[in-house]
Each structure stands twice: as structure tokens, then as C-alpha cells.
Design brief:
alpha/beta; about 20% helix; about 30% strand
């Protein structure tokens, strides 16, 4: 299993970079974890839209979903060009029905429900979920393939539930960042 960071900024991307997104690959399958601002342009340096097997979304804050619409428009164009044969599934929770409803678009993407504490098979990936501590409902992901495991905390404060959820993972991606302006401000603390 290969994990590539496509973006790591929160709130807004730094120049020439992107907000939250990771590409997980295994034996030719591609799973996009979150789809923040400027993610599609970063992803396109590594592959084509029609090569994405699925997307999983942790929550509906813009730094995690801003490029979903851009992905949908790109998928629509690739469908018109005959390069996208089936809709790209976008897995996310349904706690916000309005945002979940936006994931299905013109037959090029389809929203797929993720439940808390459930496990899904998405291509060769086994994907488990765990609620996090965040101002809006958010899910962490545990992704397993080929005997390897990666856990993405998504946005969260401390929660004991993540300890057993992440146990035994080969890689733990715990999202945290600080803009340079804050780093200078917090240096003396």
C-alpha cells in the first residue's frame, strides 16, 4: 500500500499547495481520502480522474471537500469524452443530509453512506470508521490492504476511541498544522 500526501493545509492552502487529501494506492486501485481545496490539480500530477476508484470524505468542512465540485466537473468532461465509464463513488456520512446530497452529480459521482463504527470493502481496501471530536460530525478512517494498515484521524481533539482504532497501524496520519504566522506567535509559549 502506498500513501501520498496531496495536501495538508487546513483552512486554506499555501501557495502552490492544497488542503487535506491523501491518495492511497494498492495494486492499481486508487482511493482518495478527502478532497480539499486545490487537491484536484495536485492529484492530476499523479493520475487521471477516471483512474480514481473511490473517494472517502471525513467531514464537510471546505478544507476537506472544496474540490469535490471540481472533481465532479472534471468527471463530467471525462464522461463526455468517453473516458469515464462508471460513476465515481464518494463515501461520506449522512449526518448532514444537504451536503451528502451534493455528492451525487449528473451520473458522474454517487454519494455512498458511511456509518460510524462500520467497515466497508471499497475495491481492495477494507475501510473502517470511527467518530472524532470536532465541531461538526467527522469520521476517522482505518484503511487496510495487502497486510498493511493506515489510520487517518481527520480533524479531531483527543478521544480515547482513537487508541484502539489506531492500534497496530503501520502508519498513523494525525492531521495537525499551523500557519507560519501562528508559529511565530506561539514560539514563546
Amino acid at each position: 500500500m502506498k500513501v501520498t500526501t496531496l495536501g495538508f493545509w487546513g483552512g486554506y492552502p499555501n501557495r502552490g499547495e492544497a488542503t487535506s487529501a491523501f491518495l492511497v494506492e494498492y495494486e492499481g486501485s486508487r482511493l482518495l481520502v478527502d478532497c480539499g481545496s486545490a487537491v484536484l490539480s495536485t492529484y492530476l500530477t499523479l493520475g487521471e480522474v477516471h483512474e480514481l476508484d473511490a473517494v472517502v470524505i471525513s467531514h464537510y468542512h471546505p478544507d476537506h471537500i472544496a474540490d469535490v465540485g471540481v472533481l465532479q466537473h472534471a468527471a463530467m468532461i471525462f464522461k463526455q469524452l468517453g473516458q469515464l465509464e462508471k460513476p465515481i463513488p464518494i463515501y461520506a456520512h449522512t449526518q448532514d443530509s444537504v451536503e451528502f446530497g451534493k455528492l451525487s452529480y449528473k451520473g458522474v459521482t454517487v454519494g455512498m453512506e458511511l456509518d460510524a463504527h462500520a467497515t466497508y470493502t471499497i475495491g481492495p481496501f477494507k475501510v473502517s470508521t470511527c467518530p472524532t471530536v470536532h465541531p461538526v460530525y467527522c469520521l476517522a478512517f482505518r484503511i487496510e490492504a495487502g497486510g498493511k494498515t493506515v489510520v487517518f484521524t481527520a480533524d479531531t481533539g483527543w478521544t480515547d476511541a482513537l487508541v484502539p482504532f489506531a492500534k497496530g497501524a503501520d502508519l498513523l496520519v494525525s492531521e495537525c498544522n499551523v500557519y507560519p504566522q501562528y508559529a511565530v506567535r506561539f514560539r514563546g509559549i
